[in-house]
Design brief:
It contains ten helices and twelve strands. By secondary structure, it is an alpha/beta fold. The longest helix has 21 residues, at 68-88.
Length: 298
């Protein structure tokens, strides 16, 4: 079976090469997926049976707020072109990766797969979030018309090697790793955006890569949430990252900086039924490995 993976040089794409070594991994150097002609040419030339669509323009809290429109337009174009081209050129199976920020999160319980298209996501990342909702809807409609099996996968916030290690534009784990390592090297303080009270969920990218590789062999459709636990306060996360980096100084919380919604937690009964024996990597072990990778590659 020939497998095409878009976004092949991103964090998840690179992790997936270990589990799908025979797949074809492409990046923006191979085609601009915002351009329908380039996208169609690529998929027609490769002629895959399965497409795993990872490509996305993405960023952390600040980047999402500043580029709400750009993220919506770029991702909508990429998603639409990849699905349309997959349908046109006879792809037999499509797997798309969403984001937990696309979900409506009820006040009284964690969000589930049934909440994906309920209400509005947080406005600060509305553009990116809605492009992911549109990806799920487009895949559903295409599957209904062509009988092309599809599924969308929603991991909670991923981290690991090859993340965007930028303290301004990266997601929280990578940004905090940069700050912790810099604080160690400069004997300074570690500054954290927000109050530290926000609750978020995180998962090691290698775990998601392993699950995606297994999903190819499973006859499953619809959406699937992947969340290892019920989340952690950013304050506790910062302390764990500081420990992994060997930072023993002061951690400061800047409430003037944005931190997004106070609580974002999703979970899946479906995942536990399908992967009842799956063991997620311990977060401290995953953070330690990520810090070590960053230090070697920064």
């Amino acid at each position: 079976m020939k497998i095409l993976v878009t976004g092949g040089t991103g964090m998840l794409g690179r992790a997936l090469t270990e589990y799908l070594p025979d797949a074809i991994f492409v990046s923006s150097r191979d085609a601009d997926l915002r351009n329908i002609n380039e996208t169609e040419y690529l998929i027609n030339k490769i002629a895959p049976q399965t497409v795993i669509h990872l490509a996305a323009e993405i960023g952390g809290v600040k980047a999402n707020m500043e580029k709400n429109l750009e993220f919506f337009e770029s991702n909508l174009l990429m998603n639409t072109n990849v699905i349309s081209s997959s349908v046109k050129h006879g792809v037999k199976r499509f797997i798309g990766v969403l984001s937990s920020c696309a979900y409506f999160i009820p006040d009284d319980r964690p969000g589930t797969e049934s909440d994906l298209h309920v209400g509005l996501p947080y406005f600060g990342n509305l553009g990116y979030a809605y492009s992911k909702r549109a990806l799920d809807i487009h895949a559903q409609i295409a599957a209904d018309k062509t009988k092309m099996p599809y599924m969308t996968v929603t991991p909670v916030t991923m981290f690991g090697p090859h993340d965007n290690f930028n303290s301004e534009t990266g997601h929280v784990v990578a940004a905090l790793i940069v700050k912790a390592v810099n604080a160690v090297e400069k004997n300074g303080t570690m500054s954290v955006w927000g109050s530290g009270k926000a609750i978020r969920q995180f998962v090691y990218v290698n775990d998601i890569a392993k699950i995606l590789a297994q999903l190819i062999e499973i006859n499953l459709t619809g959406n699937l949430i992947i969340a290892p636990d019920m989340g952690i306060e950013i304050k506790a996360l910062a302390e764990r990252i500081a420990n992994a980096a060997g930072f023993k100084g002061r951690i400061e919380f800047d409430s003037a900086k944005p931190e997004g919604v106070s609580r974002k937690v999703i979970q899946s009964k479906k995942f536990k039924e399908i992967f009842e024996d799956f063991l997620f990597t311990d977060i401290d072990k995953a953070l330690q490995e990520t810090v070590e990778w960053y230090r070697k590659n920064k």
